[in-house]
Amino acid sequence: MGMNGGLQSCLRCGNMFIYSGMGKCICENCKKEDEAEFQSVKNYIYEHPSATIMEVSKETDVRVVRIKSYLKDGRLIISDDSPIFINCEVCGESIKYGRLCRNCADTMSTEMRNALKVEEYQVGEKPNMSIRTRFLDR
Predict the structure, then answer these.
(1) Any alpha helices (H) in 13-128, and if so which ranges?
(2) CA 7 to CA 16: how far, in whole Å?
């Protein structure tokens, strides 16, 4: 049947549900849970901008891999002075959100970006490393 809708297995819990064909293939229960986790991560980072990804995970009970997925999807964008960053999927450069750094996205052909399904909001920017260095030296 493919991913165009119909009966699908939830990627998160494995339960069967009627998938509309839009967004991630997860059931309504998991979507609600995901939204609650996302809000708690977002609020925690807003209140504790200098928290590390491990601290955010520990304090919110949300797994690091899920926090990183919020960043990759461009749903969560962190401030310049945050010690949290992820890496460009092509060159490994530190970025604040998304899947690719601006440099790799700019040099990659449109066909290649389409094949990898990289949306514009998944092109992240580098953290301001001078602030990061100050943070680490403290």
Answers:
(1) 28-47, 53-60, 64-72, 102-107, 110-115
(2) 6
What type of residue is 50? S
Instruction: Return d(Cα 21, Cα 24) in angstroms, integer.
Output: 8
From 42, 69, 73, select the one nearest 56 (Cα to Cα). 42
pTM: 0.72
Q: How far apart, in Å, are the Cα atoms of 20 and each of 27, 97, 124?
A: 10, 27, 29
Top pLDDT among 22 and 63 is at 63
pLDDT digits (tens, 9 = 90+) for 44-84: 999 998 899 999 999 999 999 999 989 988 888 787 778 88
